[in-house]
Amino acid sequence: MHGHELSPSTIAVAAGRPDRVPGGPLNAPITLASALVPGGGSEYGRQGNPTWAPFETVLGALEGGRALAFSSGVAASAALFDLVPTGAVVVAPRGAYYGTVVQLVERDRRGQIQLRLVDIDDTAQVIAACEGAALLWIESPTNPALEIADIETIAHAATQAGAAVAVDNTFATPLRQKPLELGADFSVHSASKLLSGHSDVILGAIVTADDRAHAALEKRRTVLGAIPGAMETWLAVRGMRTLHVRLDRAEANATELHRRLSASRHVAYSRYPGFGTIISFEVTGGAAAAQKMTEQSDVITYATSLGGVESTWERRRRHPGEPESVPEGLIRLSVGIEDVEDLWIDIQNVLAAVV
């Protein structure tokens, strides 16, 4: 386009569209087929589906690499962990999403890897742990404590030590953080969350600028059968068209709610990294009050997922697999795009009822 570099918000809307031909569709159609005619690169649905391409094109353009869609975020991370040599060292945050930690702990117990857990916001600790490692897994912000890593510094140190670097970019999205530009080899997403944005998709993705790594991950996807559905990728593309406006609105809401929660006498503390849509906070009444609070709200939905247009919250330690480092009374609030005053009134009402 005359040498002009498109902004991320425009890329989210414009990338991955079909060719402009008379009578052609504006949106890429859904291909519902388990078999395809030979000669076109894929002849079986596990090898490829034309509906995956628009999603992978949009996300790849936003992240600055080539994207691969997977059946879920966990399937994406599992495919990446499968590439780690047997017995090699993997460094990861001890406060990461428990679905990730569970995978790594199980692989460590089976002798497939040697796992080193670190505090990802302790830069010196992370750098020291990367000595002799094959993979550094970064989550920033972490889920649910919202710790922030110095991605550029630790990615550079890990690379110098010979380790590959992967960043779970689910909470930040490529509109707020581009791991590949910060020195990472892989950017990983649970696309079920902010990317698709409507709580109706289970989908994962990995983005890399390394062609050999892309080919290896594509092979793992095919061999393991961790493929996305056509409907899921189509819905994710539709959701990504509005990512920038959803994210802007939800961030504005989150910023204001964090300010008010921090000033409330019923709240022990509130954490918000300054971007994204997630707030983590504790109420003064402890775990029992936190649980009742999440169950009694009218506007905010009691649910485990996040990143949708609707606000959701839950007490994270209600899940048996949640790390013990997460406080019993911590509430993870995923802020949506509702009117912020309605959200605040809802929070105030349940605070007054349970604390």
Task: Explain what the structure shows.
The protein is an alpha/beta fold and about 350 residues long. The protein folds into two domains: about 10-240, Type I PLP-dependent aspartate aminotransferase-like (Major domain) (Aspartate Aminotransferase, domain 2); about 245-355, Aspartate Aminotransferase, domain 1. Helix content is about 35%, strand content about 15%. The protein has helices at about 10-15, 50-65, 75-80, 100-110, 125-130, 150-160, 210-225, 230-240, 245-265, 285-295, 340-355; strands at about 65-70, 90-95, 115-120, 135-140, 165-170, 185-190, 205-210, 265-270, 280-285, 300, 310-315, 330-335. The strands form two sheets. A seven-stranded mixed beta sheet has the order 1-7-6-5-4-2-3, with helices on both faces. Strands 8-9-12-11-10 form a five-stranded mixed beta sheet, with helices on one face. Helix 3 packs across helix 7 (about 210-225). It starts with 7 loop residues before the first helix and ends with a helix. The mean pLDDT is about 95.
Sum this structure up briefly:
By secondary structure, this protein is an alpha/beta fold. The chain contains 11 helices and 12 strands. It has helices at residues 8-14, 52-63, 73-81, 98-109, 123-129, 151-160, 211-224, 230-240, 243-263, 286-296, 340-354, and strands spanning 66-70, 88-93, 113-118, 133-139, 164-168, 186-190, 204-208, 267-271, 278-283, 301-302, 312-315, 330-334.
